[in-house]
Amino acid sequence: MPDPISWEYAWPYLLAALAGGYLLGAIPFGLLLTKVAGLGDIRNTGSGNIGATNVLRTGRKDLAAATLLLDAAKGAAAVLIAGYWGPDTALVAGLGAVLGHLYPVWLKFKGGKGVATALGVLLALSFLVGAAACLTWLLLAIVFRYSSVSSLTSLAAAPLYSWLILGDLQMVQLTSVVALLVWTRHAQNIARLFKGQEPKIGKS
User: Fold this and answer.
1) Which of 34, 62, 180, 193 sits most deeply, having the most CB atoms within 10 A of its CB?
2) What is the pTM of this model?
3) What is the Cβ-side half-sphere exposure of residue 42, based on CA atoms within 13 angstroms?
4) SS3 sequence, the chain?
5) Which candidate, 142, 189, 190, 134, places its Cα nearest to that of 158?
6) Tens of pLDDT along 154-203?
C-alpha cells in the first residue's frame, strides 16, 4: 500500500482521481456495443440515450445487459483504482465517473443518464449501500415498470441508506450530489411522467 496522503499535498491525488474517474466514466459502452453489432448510432433510436434502457429498445437484450454491466463496472473500477490511495480519492473518482458518463468529452458532453454508473460507484464504495439502492431499483421496476421512477427513487434514497448503514457524512454528501446530477439529467423523463407519456421498460 502507498504511504498515507498528507492533506498538505492531497490535491494532486484528488485531481488525478477526478480526471481518471471522468475518463473511465466517459467510455460510451452503449454506443460502442450497438455500433459494433451493426445497429447504427443508438442516439438515433428511442430516447436517443446511450444507456442500457435505450439499448433495450433495439430488441437486443444481450447488448442491453452488457451495457448495464459495463456502465456499472466503469464506475466501480474508478472507485477501486483510486481507493488504493485512500477513501477520499475513491469518493472523488466516483464523482468523476458519474460526471464522465453524463458529460463525455467524446460526445460533445451529451452522455447518458448515469444510473448504472452511479450504482456501480455505490457498490464499490459500500456494498451494502449499493445493494440497498439496487434492490430499491429492482422492486420499483417490477411494480411500476418505469426505469426513470426506479432510477430516481433508488438514487434519492442512497443518501438515507448511506446515513443509516454507514453514518458517514462524506458518503451522504457524495450520494446527494450524485442523486442531484442524475435527477437533473432526468428532467425530460420527469416531465413525461407527469404527462403520462413516459414509456415503460421494454417499450419504444
Assistant:
1) 34
2) 0.92
3) 29
4) CCCCCCHHHCHHHHHHHHHHHHHHHCCCHHHHHHHHCCCCCHHHCCCCCCCHHHHHCCCCHHHHHHHHHHHHHHHHHHHHHHHHHCHHHHHHHHHHHHHHHHCCHHHCCCCCCCHHHHHHHHHHHCHHHHHHHHHHHHHHHHHHCCHHHHHHHHHHHHHHHHHHHCCCHHHHHHHHHHHHHHHHHCHHHHHHHHHCCCCCCCCC
5) 134
6) 999 999 999 999 999 999 999 999 999 999 999 999 999 999 888 887 66
